[in-house]
Amino acid sequence: MTDYPKLEMHIDGEWVGIGDRRVHHVVNPATGETLTDLPLAGTADLDRALAAADKGFRLWRSKTPEERSRVLRGAAHLLRERVERIARIATLEQGKTLNEARLELGASAAWLEFAAEEGKRAYGRVLVRPTGQRHMVVREPVGPVAAFAPWNFPIGNPARKLAAALAAGCSCILKPPEEAPGAALEVLRALLDAGLPAGVAQIVFGVPDEVSRHLLASPIIRKLSFTGSVPVGKHLMKLAADGMKRTTMELGGHAPVVVFDDADLERTLDIIAPHKYRNAGQVCVSPTRFYVQEPVYRRFIDGFAARAKALPVGDGLVDTNRMGPMANPRRLDAMEAFISDARRHGAKLESGGERIGNRGYFWQPTVLSDVPSSARIMNEEPFGPVAVMSPFKDFDDVVAQANRLPYGLAAYAFTQSAKRSMMIGDALEAGMVGVNTVAIAGADSPFGGVKESGHGSEDGPEGAEACQVIKVIAQA
Predict the structure, then answer these.
(1) Residues noted as catalytic
(2) How far separated are the first and last CA of the chain, in Å rounded?
(3) Rounded to the nearest 5°, which phi and psi values hold at 214?
(4) What does the pLDDT average to over 166-186?
(5) What CATH code is carried by the domain that includes residue 99?
(6) Model confidence at 373, in pLDDT bands (50, 70, 90)?
(7) 351, 305 in Cβ contact below 8 A?
(8) Average pLDDT, whole number, for the chain?
(9) CA 187 from chain center: how many Å?
(10) Is the residue at 446 inside a domain?
């Protein structure tokens, strides 16, 4: 594909190509065809990136907040100027629609802009002490950050991780996903073009376990930021624990959606059904387990299934399509296994349920009803375009169902009762709860989960704070 970029790593201010390195074949999920090859880092590359991050940290932390802010704001401006090119790269390598990629880029620019200003607000405080004495509490950058980003948001995940680290005054080694690497390189390119000094941010690719073990074993790295699955997150936390490294973990989700019988049903369906199939359901906060109160259960299923059947699915480069392919063939196998298991447990197929064609990795928007809690899909994150429905009787019943899993990233509820809105918002165990809305994220709002969905927050003031440490300076 002539409009897909050449892929390189970026280490110590230098673009590093394939040379004699191992490679990963980057595939277009809409066609199954190889786009190009990606160089994978060896030990020497990782050691060079660590040395550069160590040197880059000392340089970057010495810059004033205003100097760092100018770089971040400049990068946000460049991203917006380059929106069509970068969105096309993201669609080619990950599959999402062009419109979704454009929205993702807009959010990425907003994260950079917010971080640019938040970096100026590393406030401390002076404590009251006897005359001639003073205690100051200050915040300082934690040090070089190792950041690992997944493939589902190839622009946004790299942008938010770089934004937080750089705003706090840290250097960063970012490992984006090998399956969707091009968009992350464009985010870094915007930062470099905006004046980011060489060595402050590196991008490396490689065998994930090799890269993570090597970087986290180094005393140079002082912070780990990871977005991905629960099992991998737990593994990385164990590696980070050996060096007492700070961690921000945004892990898997299995978001419940509670629909009460007083909800405005048509409005609810118009909001939640398209959101379920955003990015082909490959979203950590995707609404997945739909608990619908018995009096409106059948109407909700019928309305949801009708919207799923009408959703245009195809190559994300075609503007009329509203859902693209799954990102890789593994997701197709997962969908087939989840749906087959659910049907064996008594679930009913209301729409979809099959692969579309044999070119690319397309799956039908799927709705399953009467799914028992014993089915795998009610207990494991499906990460795909499958909505599962189950009826409930009363408030206590649905809260118990919604909270029974170890996940706690996002949750949603729909009701026209003000009292019920407050009660369900308080009762749901999640880091983010949307009541009558799916707009739970924003540049100024913390993004993160509870329970096994992780700890710490990205975005908002909390994102920059996660890359800082507290120091008390006592003077007499």
Answers:
(1) 250, 284
(2) 67
(3) -70, -45
(4) 98
(5) 3.40.605.10
(6) very high
(7) yes
(8) 97
(9) 15
(10) no
| pLDDT per position as a tens digit, 388-433 | 999 999 999 999 999 999 999 999 999 999 999 999 999 999 999 9
Instruction: Judge whether 369 lies within some domain.
Output: yes
3-state secondary structure of 309: helix
Position 2 in a domain: no
Burial class (CB in 10 A: 0-12, 13-18, 19+), 187: buried
Rounded-to-10 torsion of CA 354, 355, 356, 360: 170
CA distances from 349 to 365, 370, 381 (A): 11, 9, 19
Q: Which two tokens stand for residue 231?
A: 């099992």
How many domains does one find in the chain? Answer: 2
CA distance 335 to 70: 45
Report how far apart, in Å, the C-alpha atoms of 107 and of each of 45, 90, 94, 104, 158 are: 31, 14, 17, 5, 12
**Closest C-alpha among 290, 145, 109, 325 to residue 218:** 145
Same domain, 270 and 399: yes
Closest C-alpha among 51, 365, 340 to residue 214: 51
Parent domain of 172: 9-251+451-475
Based on the fold, state whether residues 207 and 285 are members of the same structural domain: no
388, two tokens: 């599962």
Contact 216, 238 (CB under 8 A): no
Q: Would you give the distance in Å from CA 430 to the centre of its chain?
A: 16
- Partner residues linked to 432 by β-bridges: 410
**What's the rounded Cα separation, in Å, for the pair 136 and 125?**
6
- β-pairing verdict for 366-369 and 432-435: unpaired
Q: Provide the sign of the torsion angle of the four alpha carbons 334, 340, 341, 346, taken in this order.
A: positive
The Cα–Cα gap between 270 and 208 comes to 39
Alpha-carbon gap, residue 223 to 164, rounded angstroms: 12
pLDDT digits (tens, 9 = 90+) for 202-249: 999 999 999 999 999 999 999 999 999 999 999 999 999 999 999 999
Largest CA distance in the chain: 79
Query: Which residue type does 20 have?
Result: D
Please tell me whether residues 241 and 266 are part of one structural domain: no
d(CA 310, CA 305): 9
Dist CA 104 CA 167 (whole Å): 20
Does residue 247 share a domain with residue 262? no
Residue 248 host element (H or E)? strand 246-250
List, for residues 424-440, the tens digit of each pLDDT value.
999 999 999 999 999 99
Cβ contacts of 204 within 8 Å, gap of 6 or more: 9, 11, 41, 45, 46, 49, 173, 174, 175, 211
Same domain, 457 and 419: no
